[in-house]
Write a structure and sequence with these properties.
The structure is a homodimer. With about 475 residues, chain A is an alpha/beta fold. Among the domains of chain A are: about 70 residues; about 270 residues, Type I PLP-dependent aspartate aminotransferase-like (Major domain) (Aspartate Aminotransferase, domain 2), CATH 3.40.640. Chain A is built from 14 helices and eleven strands. Chain A has a seven-stranded mixed beta sheet with strand order 1-7-6-5-4-2-3, sandwiched between helices. In chain A, strands 8-9-11-10 form a four-stranded antiparallel beta sheet. In chain A, α10 links the parallel β5 and β6. The longest helix of chain A is centred in the C-terminal third of the chain and has 36 residues. Chain A is globular and about 70 Å long. At the A-B interface, α1, α2, α3, α4 and α5 of A face α1, α2, α3, α4 and α5 of B.
Chain lengths: ~475, ~475
């Protein structure tokens, strides 16, 4: 460690009000630039790993630099190399365009700097978070009392739900905490990888995961689920949780949720629905049927930062029983002792989740729900689904394009060169299409592989996307495909 | 679900450039208000649970409201009921005053809205995060290559470290993944509750935790640790991880880290150091000795949002071996397949942690390190330690005050009425002091209980705090104590 420098009076990192206002004004211009770039800039500028590192790398700063230099670095070296997930032709993942009001709310949250651990420390932030969770609960028809938590995203929401389910299973079966080698978990291969990661972290061995068969549309087969659970019970296993998907992130697949719920109820196994992406579609006409399953589930994941247009770092886990959350997460200590007796005041979010100091995520979620209302969100979601249907139509109408399934606002298809039947050659052409498209930066999509077939995957979760953008994408696929074909 | 409304053309949540700039200007005023409130407002305004709820509660909004109404709600209903952790006389927890430049950086991160999952999706944000982690590694003398991750805070950092340690222990012992019933974990009762929570979540039973004795200064006794590990090995247990504290959040206690490291090395057990609060003190003269232990540890938690003055939601876990992180967190799936071959470009943060979509935490951490440099941070940290020593002096000098131990920038003491020896009566008076102080809002502190004695706990992690603020607190304690005494 270097020697201490001579000290010259007290140090403060405060800015004068004038400095703060001037830097604030520059920040607003940069925020406006960042939002404008979502339309005007390439979706992702081509840069190599070495180039990016050479632009940013430098030794640990020994002395500070003036604020102007900091903002200048954001402008010149960071902003240009950000992917624009809000670009009208970003079709890559279920990463949405964020509501600009949500972005401003998130900036406000940073200035308020609340560690949202418990009511006693952060009354307003805790109440806003609890209100936002109650609203989300009502929005999707979970029908709970708002028991749940805002977390960083779907992976964390799924982890929290499974932690609750597993602690609950131990409790119900009278097993001592931490004896997980008799528990079993049920999901299909289409389930999000974060569920498998959660299982592993919770100390459940891979061979305790039961992979339930899917049908030709990649949906879990309820009869296969029922049979496997019965068989496991018969053999002395303790089924802990069934994980169903309300819209997989890969293909948008929605499991037969009501039938899966029936199986879970009959066998008395915890049902977790991963609706991280798809749950908000329940407010649209075509997917209202999902509410019946949500209302019966024991836990549900849904990400406000996916199809509710909040900025990144806004997931939500809803849980039916508060006791289940506390069983998984509450630990008594001097440091976390709650002496308040009034129910609102004694509420501690850290007793319901992994985190202690938690970001004030509630403000942006509250803001998006308040600013747009159910009606606005429904319109935006329906618009995305309509665009996916428009894409389906374009694919169906063109001889070179082969649809491989679509659901919610995700469509998978591939380009098939004339008369080509060799999968290897088809894959090569489609790989070329993705690489060219993404490199040119006017569109962005991600590939996937379905039943061994490499294909193009289009996610539409964007209030900026229009028919002309979808048409542009299809035309580009056809143009590049034709070039690759020759 | 309500019926769909008639649609009238495409919906967008975009603001016009003029709207965005006008709302942005209002946001800056609100951010400035929030920062100014850290000096001018009560630390925490008294409000009851019922009052707070009645101010904020309302039904799920069916239609949206104009942006002006949103910002007005932030101003009138949220801002006044936030605790000011940056207030010069906030002594409650290790919640620091945040660097205003860090707040602006965090606002910028919200506008850039990068889901920092992997380099291929977010080149600049991934590189900034990796650079910030390398800088933190160098700052504290971990001596690694920057293997690690920014996470939400200390609880998450500790969870990540223990997940790595546990997966590593399984691997080393040749146990199949998920057979954790032979693993043992070592910590003292002074260790942060999040470590115990992590153990529970990882599926390790409470009776597999070995509570190692502490000395009169609450420091882990290395000989007791060594004896217990040897004994466990002898009995066929697999010691997985030793958790040592570099500054507990309760009392600032620093375990004898070098001696603990020796034990861990001799027994070949993973050493995790929880330096969430205290690790940055290694850059000051008095605590430079900790670097030797950090350089030998297998993992280290440190929170930039604690004593490095970043806004909330900035923890960091450093891990010696990248393979250990991947062993705990990497799962292969179609969705997470990385096809890039160049090492920088193929780096996936989601293979090293729980989260997939991750907030762009790197920007604020980079900004604080770049804007202040090691020199500025050292001055701020030393200043806090000096203020704690000043407080020690005031306590030692006054007959009514009894010091109960202090370390780093935390001091514990209590007011003892003249001639009083009954603990119950002393507790009553000190309880009254805390309640009165916090209710009056000019100071804020939190109590704790040490060896059964209720006492006042003062944390100084604030670049705004001065001697006069510490003196104000002591004078208030004496004033209220004298009143309570009578």
């Amino acid at each position: 460690m270097p020697e201490a420098e001579p000290r010259a009076g007290p140090i403060s990192f405060d800015l004068t009000p004038e400095e703060l206002r001037q830097l604030g004004a520059e920040l607003v211009e940069l925020m406006a630039d960042a939002i404008a770039a979502e339309r005007s800039e390439p979706v992702l500028r081509a840069v190599s790993g070495e180039e990016m590192r050479s632009i940013l790398d430098e030794p640990l700063p020994q002395s500070g630099v003036p604020p102007a230099e900091i903002l200048d670095t954001w402008r010149r070296k960071v902003l240009p190399y950000c992917r624009r997930n809000g670009h009208p032709r970003f079709f890559g993942y279920v990463c949405t365009s964020a509501d600009p009001l949500g972005m401003l709310a998130d900036g406000m949250a940073s200035a308020l700097n609340q560690p949202v651990a418990a009511w006693r420390s952060t009354p307003a932030a805790t109440e806003i978070e609890r209100l936002a969770v109650r609203w989300l609960d009502q929005l999707v028809g979970f029908g709970g009392d708002g028991t749940g938590l805002l977390v960083s995203g779907g992976s964390s929401a799924n982890f929290h739900a499974l932690a609750c389910a597993v602690a609950n299973a131990e409790h119900q079966a009278g097993l001592p905490a931490g004896t997980r080698n008799r528990l079993t978990v049920y999901m299909s291969r289409e389930a999000h990888v974060s569920l498998q990661k959660a299982v592993r972290l919770l100390g459940i061995a891979p061979d305790q995961v039961r992979w339930i068969d899917v049908d030709a549309s990649r949906r879990m087969v309820p009869a296969a689920l029922a049979a496997r659970i019965e068989d496991d019970i018969h053999q002395g296993w303790v089924p802990a949780v069934v994980c169903a998907s309300a819209g997989t992130a890969n293909t948008g697949t929605v499991d037969p949720l009501v039938e899966v719920l029936d199986v879970a109820r009959d066998t008395e196994v915890w049902l977790h629905v991963d609706g991280s992406y798809g749950a908000p579609a329940v407010i649209t006409g075509g997917y209202g049927w999902m509410a019946e399953a949500f209302a019966g589930a024991d836990s549900l994941s849904l990400d406000p930062h996916k199809w509710l247009f909040a900025p990144v770092d806004a997931g939500c886990v809803l849980v039916r029983e508060d006791a289940a959350m506390r069983r998984a997460f509450q630990l008594d200590s001097e440091y976390t002792e709650v002496t308040e007796t009034e129910p609102i005041e004694r509420y501690a979010l850290f007793d319901r989740g992994l985190e202690m100091s938690r970001r004030f995520r509630g403000l942006k979620v509250w803001t998006v729900l308040k600013a747009r209302g159910v009606a606005g969100l429904r319109q935006a979601i329906e618009q995305d689904i309509e665009l996916r249907k428009h894409l389906d139509g374009r694919v169906a109408a063109h001889a070179r394009l082969e649809g491989l399934g679509s659901e919610l606002s995700i469509a998978c298809f591939r380009y098939v060169p004339e008369g080509e039947t060799r999968d290897e050659r088809i894959t090569e052409v489609n790989r070329r299409i993705v690489e060219t498209l993404n490199r040119e930066g006017r569109c962005y999509m991600s590939p996937t592989t379905l039943d061994g077939r490499y294909c193009l995957r289009v996610c539409i979760v964007n209030f900026r996307t229009r028919k002309k953008d979808v048409d542009f994408l299809v035309d580009e696929v056809l143009r590049i495909g034709a070039l690759a074909e020759t």
